[in-house]
Amino acid sequence: MAIHTLYPAERGNLRLSFEYFPPKSDEMEVQLFETVEALSAFSPAFVTVTYGAGGSTKSRSLTTVCRMIKDTGLVNTAAHLTCVGATKADVDAVVNEFTTCGVRHFVALRGDPQGGIGARYEPTAGGYENAAALVAGIRAKGDFEISVSAYPEKHPESADVTADIDMLKRKVDNGATRALTQFFFDNNDFERYLERVRRAGINIPVVPGILPINNLAQTRKFAGLCGASVPDAIITRLIHLDEAPEERFKEATHIAAEQIVDLARRGVRDFHLYTMNRSPLVAAVCDLVGFERAQKAAPARREGAAA
Ligand code: FAD
Question: InterPro entries under this entry (predicted)?
Fold first, then answer.
C-alpha cells in the first residue's frame, strides 16, 4: 500500500464535498452533470455551485443549483452568493429564489472587486458592505447553513493574516457555520493558520480546499492572482510532463492524494475538492486515498430467474 493511501481504520468519518461552477454552454452542462453523477459515487456531504461576482452567473447558477437538487437528488447543494455590485434587495431576492428551489445552505462571499482581482473594492450603495454583513443578512432570513471563505495564505487585499482572522471572526459572530479555504498546497500553512484561528476563539469547522492540478500553468497563474503559492517541489514534479498526459495525470493524482492523506493524519476529517467540473482526476484522487464508492443498486432479479 502506497503512503498516500489511507488504511481502512484511518478512513473513519472522513467527509468529502465538491465545488462546481455553472456551465456556460449546453455542452458544458452535459459535462457538468456527467461529472456530478460520476462524483456522486463518493457520497459527498454536500456540493457547492459558484456564483459570479456582480451576479454575472445569476440565472445559470440558479438553474444549475435547482437542477442539482431536483433532478439529481443532491439535496445538500449549497449556493454560493456574492454581494459585490448588488443592493441588499437584489441579494435578498436571489436568496428567496434559491430557497424556493430547496436551498438550505449558502456560501456567503463578498466577491472580487468589479474591476477584477487587484482592483479596489467599493461597497455598493444600499448593499452589504462585506461578507460579514452578508452573513448577517442571510442569517436574518432563516436557519440556513452558512459557509464562508478562509485564506490560509492570506487574502491578497488583507494587510496580514491577523486582519483575515478578524474578518473570519466577524463572519462567525454573524452566523457563519463553516469555513471553506482557498486552495493551498503546503499543509504546514494550513496547520499554522488553523492554530491561529482556534487561538482567536473561532470553533467552526475549517475545511481545507484541495485543488487537484489539471493544468500546472493555469494553476500557477490563478494561484498568483489569489495569493496562494505553488511549492517548487510540486512544480518540479509536474513541469516536465506537459507532453506526457498520462504521466502528468498520475503525478497530479499522487500529489493531491498525498496532501489529503497527510491532512487526515494531522486530524483533518473534511475535504472540499475544487473539481473544475471534471471528474477523472478528482475521482482518481478519491480512489487512491481510499474513499469508498457507494455500491450501485443491483438490477432487481425476476422472480424464479436462475441465479
Ligand atoms: P471577505 O471575507 O469579506 O474578505 C477577505 C479578506 O480580505 C478579509 O479577510 C479581509 O481581511 C480582506 N479585506 C476585505 N475587504 C477589505 C478591504 N476593503 N480592505 C482591506 N482588506 C480587506 N468569488 C466569486 O466571485 N464567486 C464565488 O462563487 C466564489 N467562491 C469562493 C469560494 C471560496 C471557498 C473562496 C475561498 C473564495 C471564493 N470566491 C468566489 C472568491 C472571493 O469572492 C474573493 O476572494 C473575494 O476577493 C473576497 O471575498 P470574501 O467573501 O472572501 O471576502
Answer: FAD-linked_oxidoreductase-like, Mehydrof_redctse-like, MTHF_reductase_bac
CA 119 / ligand 1 centre spacing (Å): 13
What average pLDDT does range 180-208 have in this prediction? 98
Residue whose CA is at the smallest distance from ligand 1 atom 40? 111
Residue 265: pLDDT above 50? yes
The predicted pLDDT at position 2 comes to 58
Q: Taking residues 37-51, what's their average pLDDT?
A: 97
CA–CA dist 162, 246 (Å, integer)? 42
Give tens-digit pLDDT for 16-28: 999 999 999 999 9
Residue 246 Cα, ligand 1 centroid: separation in angstroms?
Answer: 35
Radius of gyration of the chain (CA): 20
User: In whole angstroms, how far apart are CA 80 and each of 77, 96, 98, 100?
Assistant: 10, 14, 10, 15
**DSSP per residue over 29-70, as a string?**
HHHHHHHHHHHHTT--SEEEE---GGGTTHHHHHHHHHHHHH
Tell me: ipTM over 0.90: yes
Q: 184 with 190: CB under 8 angstroms?
A: yes
Q: Ligand 1: which residue has its CA nearest to atom 16?
A: 157
**167 Cβ closer than 6 Å to some ligand 1 atom:** yes
Selection from 34, 35, 44, 153 nearest residue 105 by Cα: 44
